[in-house]
Amino acid sequence: MARSALTGTRVRERRLRIGMKQADLARSSGISPAYLNLIEHNRRRVGAALLTALAAALGIEEAALAEGAESALMEGLREAAAGAAGAETVPEIARIEEFVSRFPGWAELLSARQARVGALERAVEALSERMAHDPFLSASLHEVLSAATSVRSTAAILAESEDIDPIWRERFHGNIFDDSTRLSEAAQALVTFMDTTEAGETGLSSPQEEVEAWLARTEYHLAALERSHPPAAEALIAGVPELATGAARTLALAHITRYRADALALPLEPFQRAVAELGADPAALSARFGVAPSAIFRRLVTLPKAAAPALGMVVCDASGGVTFRRPLPGFSLPRHGAGCPLWPLYEVLARPAVLVRLPVEMAGRVPQRFVLHAFAETSHPGGYDGPQVIAAMMLIQPALTPRSGGERPVGPACRICPRAACVARREPSILIGSGA
Known about the structure:
By secondary structure, the chain is α+β, with helices and mostly antiparallel strands. 50% of the residues lie in helices and 10% in strands. It contains 17 helices and six strands.
């Protein structure tokens, strides 16, 4: 496939259009952010294999990156057509090229509207999560309502009382001024907080999120723990700005202990060689090293970025509560609460020690395909006379093979899933009524 000198520019435009961070795209494509930056500024050639990886991570046809603006425009129109699935009038996808050539202005407008719809859908997802679970948002809204109610009550007294002692009138005026200032400050804080939605996930509201922010900054690879004689765990987290609370530091220490045990069981260099030979196949790697798939899952998502395949992971306990997330572009993981009940993550809770592999299609305006590996393991931290503790984990891989037709349709979470006819739905979606 021919590639023009501006392939890097199109990579950058597509990444910005879908709201993906440069570090996320680099990790998904198996290259460093510095190398991706050179590509996006057209200072490095994009080979065939890397073009395929970039296109898969960006959710776009390779031709759209390699061939230029017209191909990218047609890709935007295909996205719009895919989003109209189920509508009474079915777009003529086979005639997109003719439409672009005959009506380029309308094609540009429709493609731009499609990009805007995608951006708004991402904003809805983020806002839905915040409105449902974020304690800061709830407190801010309460402050706004409280201040507004106080202003209204004081204003009503002044408006309805004809004869008020001047001293009391002055006090009421002072109360209105103070409450209006409080209302203004609360509203400004709320607006500032909500404005961060477009920049990504911000506002660390739990110790788990503090740990995940720290791990994301390190790209989930703690090089110091790969050494023969690593530093003390406390030294690794000393002064880390993301770990602001004692609870977060406790969770971080537990993660370091588990990471070190995995590094000893699966030394980095032999494990990387095995991944290069066998691919990111948990079953094959588990058999090669004689360890449980859970250790393979954890090791795969902590490989250094230069050698790491595009992978995500989510872990939950027996209640379904998420205890760890490593996001992967295109596969939405909720910040709070449970995900899609059709994920094999939850199925394996009833089938401990059984490795499950499942191809799926993630719902969205342009559905994306993934391969999910799930495994649950049990432990008895209180001894065998105590309760059995179960944890499940799910490894997320982009599908690299052609569509088979046997993919299970899944979604992110019921509240923001557009699949209207899902048999596992537990609550109405806020997107279905909008025609998403």
